Amino acid sequence: MPDILPIATFSQKDVQTAAEWILEQNPHPVPKYRLFNEVLRLRNEDPELELAKHELAHSKWVRQLQNAQLPDGSWGRFHSQDTKLKSVFRTSEEAIDRAFSLGMERSHPVLEQVKKYIVDVLLGRAHIGDRQEKNEAWPLLIRCILAGRLAQIEPTNPLLDESWDCLREVTQRAFQSGHYRLADEAQAFLQVANTHVPKGFIESQHTLWILSARQLPGHLEQQLVEWVWNKVDGIRYIRAPFINPTPGSIAGWLRSMNILRRFEAWKSVCVDTLNQIWSSRGEDGFWDFGPQAGWRTDFPISDNWRQGVNRKIDYSTFLLALFSKYFN
């Protein structure tokens, strides 16, 4: 990692001041709680945070997520959508992402239940309802997908050790020439996991969650983060470029940033883009990327967007939470 990082044009105080101004607009429960918890970082015993948490628990979107969860902890199929079935959430993965967009803590019963479901599947005590894909790598990849979601919810879980060891070795070999080569990654999967993965998998969101759950060697982490950052199509399954995000890609960009920021090396690549986004704030104090967020999973977090100010509050909440994480 470079000794001297580029300089952010915004400070933690700037971010918190912007959050305080938005809170003065009396936002709906989800953005209110996220601003108090993630940006202002109020103590758990703070009365304002306690009240906001109570309002969050009874909010429209949290209740929707709870009511759609099945007794086994899932929301139906885990990774692949059943197009014949009408449901609020197309997959359990989508529901997990929705929980995080709503600012739900990892200890929330909704996430505890799906975590237990994932653990049971990984241990062979339960099975997912997805059809097995016609791909010889499917058993390995679906295990990585499940482990990735477990890492998203509980990165310290010891069940991740085996997957992390495997993927760390594959990643090490994929960069053995000094830069990433798909042929080296495919060969590494054959040698390490005895599985043919010709299209690779370390660019996926699931692998990145797993690898970020433990400390990678510094040089390897820097190589990985710089490679992912500069990919024109971004992270697999999200496909939003990191550089010069557009209004249509902003939801995917935000999700991608919240994955990559789990690596310390993220700070060495993100500053120029964060500065660009910071300077794009409107004169009214909000960020606004238009009515089409692109990903229904993440937006809205306000109860509705019939009032344009709620849309602006939602975008601004996501961005201020991200800016705040730069100072973690």
What does this 3D model show about the protein?
By secondary structure, the chain is an all-alpha fold. It is 53% helix and 0% strand. The protein contains 14 helices and no strands. The protein has helices at residues 12-23, 29-39, 47-57, 60-68, 92-101, 109-122, 138-153, 160-174, 182-193, 205-212, 218-230, 250-260, 267-279, 308-325. Helix 2 runs parallel beside helix 14 (308-325). The model has no long low-confidence stretch (mean pLDDT 95).
Summarize the structure in short.
The chain has 14 helices and no strands. It has helices spanning 12-23, 29-39, 47-57, 60-68, 92-101, 109-122, 138-153, 160-174, 182-193, 205-212, 218-230, 250-260, 267-279, 308-325.
Give the topology.
Layout lengths: L11 H12 L5 H11 L7 H11 L2 H9 L23 H10 L7 H14 L15 H16 L6 H15 L7 H12 L11 H8 L5 H13 L19 H11 L6 H13 L28 H18 L3
Helix pairs in contact: 1-2, 1-14, 2-3, 2-14, 6-7, 7-10, 8-9
